[in-house]
Design goal:
Strand content: 35-45%
Number of domains: 1
Shape: globular
Distance between the termini: 31 Å
Number of strands: 27
Structural class: mainly beta
Largest sheet: 9 strands, antiparallel
CATH class: Mainly Beta
């Protein structure tokens, strides 16, 4: 493990980078500001290492321009309608930062705080433990929430992300990791002239999804993917049907939807597989969560300049955000996201990287 300065917060707090390398030479680079994964370097079919994460070369970029690149998001990933919910008879009003709605923890969510960081070594590999205490009333949430997130880079080229939290009063919680991937290599260097992810082939273990309204809030329905452009039960290129005339694609300007995973029992589920045909890189995702948000970088428009001074155009990266469903505190038909005193919130997601012949 190596650590190095990454910058200084406006209040003078120093921020560091933590770098981990496994026996295959793959490298994970993370910072304790926002729990951000700054870089992940894995090999392609030819054995060449390349970074597969969108992001910035400096802390300043994450402070000023980042659309959650690589960050831990919470207390509640995704949207809560009008930032409002009722819990045990009490109406709670959260900060709103996405039009009328609350998104990814609010104005100052977990992506914008400096976490306590401690490198560690386990039987799986080296990693970084991140801890944060969110006080009662933070962004409007009830209760003091104690959170720990652990990153581990294994010798099997797996990035393991484990979450744990407890609260002193009932509160909603829904944590995720918001990395933007491009398996061709950042900027698409392995695929000359093609920096988008539309040619990546995707499989999702999901028969249903949660449709959204014009403001991307779930309607409460769970709809089948069959017969729609949201059907990824068999591998398909992400861009094969992204421009088709379908109300759900039009409202989100692409894919920005929660998929209901085909879960028969607790534990890790093989939820997704992505293959980039040119580089040969593959990503297999396993999770204990019931849902997964597919986001195809629809909001990137070339105005954000990231690593190596590359402008990130639309569809430059994709996110696979393992989660409970959006707006669950207002949707009694969705799995509960309420954490109560004496309970421990636990979640685990594994990103496994490989290559195709």
């Amino acid at each position: 493990m190596k650590r190095a300065p990454f910058g200084v917060m406006p209040d003078g707090t120093p921020v560091e980078l933590f770098s981990f390398r496994n026996s295959r030479g793959s490298e994970l680079v993370a910072t304790h500001y926002g729990g951000i994964i700054v870089a992940l370097r894995v090999r392609d079919r030819a054995g060449r290492l390349d970074d597969v994460m969108l992001g910035f070369d400096s802390l300043d970029g994450y402070l000023k321009h980042s659309p959650y690149f690589g960050a831990i998001v919470g207390r509640y990933a995704n949207r809560i309608c009008r930032g409002r919910f009722t819990l045990d008879g009490r109406t709670c009003q959260l900060a709103t930062n996405n039009g009328l709605h609350h998104l990814h923890g609010g104005i100052r969510g977990f992506d914008k705080v400096v976490w306590a960081a401690e490198p560690f070594r386990s039987a799986w590999g080296e990693g970084l433990a991140l801890r944060h205490t969110s006080l009662d009333g933070d962004q409007g949430y009830p209760g003091t929430l104690s959170v720990e997130v652990r990153y581990v880079l294994t010798d099997a080229d797996e990035l393991v992300v484990e979450y744990q939290a407890s609260s002193d009063v009932p509160t909603p919680i829904n944590l995720t990791q918001h990395s933007y991937f491009n398996l061709a290599g950042v900027g698409g260097r392995s695929a000359p002239g093609r920096g988008d992810i539309l040619g990546h082939e995707l499989m999702l273990a999901a028969d249903g999804f949660t449709p959204v309204d014009a403001t991307l809030i779930p309607t409460g329905e769970i709809a089948p993917v069959a017969g729609t452009p949201l059907d990824f039960r068999e591998p398909r290129a992400m861009g094969a049907r992204i421009e088709q005339p379908h109300a759900q694609l039009e409202v989100a300007a692409g894919y920005d939807h929660n998929f209901v995973l085909r879960r028969g029992a607790p534990g890790l589920l093989h939820a997704a597989r992505v293959v980039e045909p040119v580089s040969g890189r593959s990503l297999d995702l396993f999770t204990t969560e019931p849902g997964l948000q597919l986001y195809t970088g629809n909001g990137l428009d070339g105005t954000i300049v990231g690593k190596d001074k590359r402008a990130y155009a639309r569809h430059s990266g994709f996110c696979l955000e393992t989660q409970h469903y959006p707006d669950s505190p207002n949707q009694p038909g969705f799995p509960s996201t309420i954490l109560r005193p004496g309970e421990v919130y636990r979640s685990r997601t594994v990103f496994g990287f490989g290559v195709q012949p």
